[in-house]
Amino acid sequence: MSPADQNSADDAPQEERYVALVGMGPGDPGLLTLRAAAELARADVVIADPAAVHPEVRAHARADAEFVDAAAGDPAKLAVKAARAGRHVVRLYRGDPGLGCGLAAEAAALRKADVPFEVVPGVSAVTGVPGYAGIPLTDGKHREVRVVDASEGGVDWEKFAAPGVTLVILGAEGTVAEVAKGLVAAGRPDSTPAAMTSLGTTTEQETVVSTLHRLAADTKGMESPAMIIVGDVVNWRDKLSWFETKPLFGWRVLVPRTKEQAESLSTRLRGYGAVPDEVPTISVEPPRTPQQMERAVKGLVTGRYEWVVFTSTNAVRAVREKFTDYGLDARAFAGLKVAAVGEQTAAALVEFGVHPDLMPDGQQSSEGLADVWPPYDEDLDPINRVLLPRADIATDTLIARLTQLGWECEDVTAYRTVRAAPPPAPIREAIKGGGFDAVLFTSSSTVKNLIGIAGKPHNVTVIAVIGPQTAKTAEEYGLRVDVMAERPSAAALAEALAEYGANRRTAQIEAGDPLRKPSQMRRGARRRK
Q1: Dist CA 1 CA 7 (whole Å)
Q2: Is 173 left (phi over 0), alpha (psi -120 to 50) or beta?
Q3: Average pLDDT along the chain
Q4: Beta strand 166-170 with 89-93: parallel, antiparallel or unpaired?
Q5: Is 234:256 a contact under the CB 8 Å cutoff?
Q6: 3-state DSSP assignment of residue 196
Q7: What average pLDDT does this structure show over 318-347?
Q8: Residue 526: pLDDT above 60?
Q9: Contact 184/160 with Cβ under 8 angstroms?
Q10: CA angle 522, 528, 529 (to 5 degrees)
Q11: Going edge to edge, which strands form the sheet with 337-340?
């Protein structure tokens, strides 16, 4: 480097280093703010309680970021040491840094050490948890809210006896009876509505609505962290509960697909309140001899084919990757007719820039596509050749039907499907032991491969399948099919499971039974009370 270049480098503005004191919300990773996500993306060092950091929050940090357990020492001293070493530090707090956290003491220590810091507020448990419980802290009649930290005990409940004031009580999980007695002794009627929410804003959230008189007995065994809300606003819960009433709330659902395919299905399941667990059963790999696909792509460009048929999103991906290799794009399909076996495959084509000319009217399968396929007409069709880029294990049903209609089919191996490696031991144990509430099967191969690599799902687990053929395979393997999609698509399968969950919940309520997930029906499952 020349002296001039060295001077330029020295004069270049340096990125400001400081400690970011960041709130990550009360539990739901979706409540992380944009500013918090940006700070995590910049962080060299993250100081936090590991148990409190959701994997989706952690994913915002770089892969090479160092995570330091806040319990490994004084968090402020850890932050000072890292900042003085020239590293960008993020100190993560659950909820909001300034409410029920160590912001005051830690920020003061940073100021004393002359280390610059910034505060990134987060969604506080005080507002976030009641919101997820369906309890507004204020309404037209109740305008005052008071927050009480009861974690150290010794609260003078006389100060909180006013009947029209909403109380949000933190840190009282182990002293519920004492809190209730203190408020009643201070003048609050024992009939005052009270609610307790544990693990708020997470899919393990549980809310119990009671009164001061019954609160301790009704909430026995609830997990920490928990919050108590006292006041007439609790009565809104019956009308405004939206989170815990989702049809699959808290259900742990196994999604056995390739990772790329699982993403959209998992997103839909989360929308219904479920906790999807993606377990790949199939690994998609390139063909052993790529020359066949290379000739097929060249044939597409030179006009060798009249039709090209896509029977899976993997086939679309394989062709698209070959196009990229050759510097081609969707314009190479000009003059070709394109068929898609179903909605998901069609969506992948549209994303590529290709709109299918033909899709099944009813059953979204090779058979359904064959049912609507036109016969070859030498007056209308200048070429009678059809390209089918497919998996190495594809069946010959479609080819046989098209051949009967007068078409010449070229079946090309676009990709190979290989059974994935077995999932980790805890997943296998959960599958066989009833730890999952439901499992979604999107093809016969997912049934065979899941059982092959992980074992047969427990009999309490709800079995949901995408169509009749998958149902037949599941039954052949001794599984009881509980749910089948009305049409063979991932969206319809998730919707069908959600409808099943909603009906199950309604039946439990009408029967006066406790609301229990399928996994809680197995022998030895933990119950709260």
Answers
A1: 10
A2: alpha
A3: 90
A4: unpaired
A5: no
A6: strand
A7: 89
A8: no
A9: no
A10: 100
A11: 282-285, 408-419, 385-391, 307-310, 337-340
420 token code pair = 């994935």
Domain count of the fold of the chain: 4
Which tens digits make up the pLDDT trace of 255-280?
987 655 667 788 899 999 999 999 98
> In terms of Cα–Cα distance, which of 452, 446, 453 is closest to 421?
453
State what percent of residues in the chain have pLDDT above 90: 67
Answer yes or no: is pLDDT of 11 > 50: no
Q: Which domain holds residue 371?
A: 290-418
Residue 371 inside a domain? The answer is yes
Strand boundaries in 31-157, DSSP class E: 45-48, 66-69, 89-93, 117-120, 145-149
> Mind giving me the DSSP string for 419-453?
EPPPPPHHHHHHHHHT--SEEEE-SHHHHHHHHHH
The reply to whether 260 and 329 lie within a common domain is no
Count of residues in the chain: 529
The answer to whether residue 3 is domain-embedded is: no
CATH number reported for the structural domain that contains residue 214 in this entry: 3.30.950.10
> Residue 371: which CATH number?
3.40.50.10090
